């Protein structure tokens, strides 16, 4: 009887821990997205022999809809990316054409960055497609964080074999993510810096994506402006509308 009670107690603790980890990730994801969002972003791409900068504006509505409009450099100004659920379109103003991206292109680099088209679409949900558990507590950039391990659920349509996410315990900010392949090798790292208040929410203003096996490669995302929960019609996220964005 004592052994049975001990096992029941252990399963109860593990279940509660999983629930806590899931809730932490839900709250963190909800904070970043809001019901809607508008962002003005600078992206800096670093390579061993060159550097490049882009600027863009981005609108989102829930998890399913997003539009990104490139405003700089002049050569790429006016290019638009549209996400609707698990599908993605690219509008090219130079040829006045909208192209639907096939699955074969989803793992390719997005605009020469260290992000893929799949990262932009966020086809896989860390809450829906992974099982999560808290495996410890560590400090990142001086902030006490939960260390959460995510493993993909069976048949989940995900790229990664494992994720480790460090979430700030006070403000639910994702301060660090490590991306592992199916053989448990570290492939990419995400590091967050410089928390600021954006529309009343404390969030990192600078995020670095670093491919571990490519020394000297890095993509830096700087949030210059973030506004949340302003009304945006669903019609904003249509192919006809993105042709009119400037």
Q: DSSP helix count?
A: 3
| Main sheet makeup | 13 strands, antiparallel
Q: Class, according to the CATH hierarchy?
A: Mainly Beta
Ranges with pLDDT <50 over ≥5 residues? 1-18
Number of strands: 13
Report how far apart the termini are: 70 Å
Level-2 CATH architecture: Clam
Basic shape: globular
Tell me the name of the CATH homologous superfamily.
Answer: Lipoprotein localisation LolA/LolB/LppX
* CATH fold call: outer membrane lipoprotein receptor (LolB), chain A
Radius of gyration: 19 Å
How would you briefly describe this protein structure?
This protein has 246 residues and is α+β, with helices and mostly antiparallel strands.
Tell me what you see in this structure.
It is a single chain. The chain is of the alpha+beta class and 246 residues long. It has a single domain (2-242), classed as Lipoprotein localisation LolA/LolB/LppX (outer membrane lipoprotein receptor (LolB), chain A, Clam). Helices cover 17% and strands 48% of the residues. The protein has a 13-stranded antiparallel sheet. Residues 1-18 have low confidence and may be disordered.
